[in-house]
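Hey, sorry to bother you again with one of my protein questions. A protein chain has come my way and I'm curious about its shape. It would help a lot if you went through both lines with me. I owe you a coffee for this, so here goes:
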Amino acid sequence: MASSSSSSSNIKIKSGPIDGDVLWMQAKHVSEHVWNGEEDRKLHIRRAVPTYQGEEEIPEEIIPLLRQCGFYWIIKMGYLKINASLITALIERWRPETHTFHMRCGECTITLQDVSVLLGMRVDGAPLIGQTNLDWAELCEELLGVRPQEGELQGSVVRLSWLAHHFSHINNHDGNVEQLQRFTRAWILRFIGGVLFVDKSSSKVSLRYLQFLRDFDQCSTYAWGPAVLAYLYREMCSATDYKIKSIGGMCILIQIWAWERCTTLAPKRTPPVIQNKPLGHRWLRRGNQHIGNDDLIVFRCKLDIMKRHEVRRT
């Protein structure tokens, strides 16, 4: 990566690639600023996990429906706390030109296989391609049982707080299958807008996703995994710009991938594998508390000295 030039009196080392034909975005890449000794930038993780009565937990009444539509495991793992320093250190080595992490021992990346194995998300099936010109207020009334009032719907977008307000008590929907389905759809929408496809505000969600939640059995056949990974890639690429201070998307995937693939980055005690569950689920056994060191410099050093044998390939 680094190029150097020497003279009889001194040695000058220049950061970045020797040839900029491939890695042409070095000038604004965060690694350039790290090399120049500028102020460290620790990324803010944008996310708003859905809560119920003030607790970060899934109401038991809707768990069977979440399983039916294929969202249970991904939502459950979404409550894991994220180590912002670990994410930041990895983003410093992410190259948007190649969509890979550039380590001293080579290049590596997060793949669809990781999405499937670690998160249990479907990576094959029907793509998330739907209509973009529906009557969103009418669709909302049909599938959620409530119609946004004037000013509450901007195009196809509603606020997460609007969903939380109208679906705050499961007792209002318990005992009625249709009502529980509506509550479940609202919960998934809150997770989509707050975690999977979070925008810069972390407070809104597009009702375009609602059309894929009409039939729960069909919902489980959609390829949600590629959409989640593609969105995360875009957020990671954007976050390599030193001026960008936050990152959204399913960042917990970056963290679990690092723990599973890079032995020196994982917490000292690795939980055992749990049968018939996504591999990443084993980290939930330690609770949802923040896990591991939160020192950016420590993670930089670990990545600097990482050896090839310390990266799991399979």
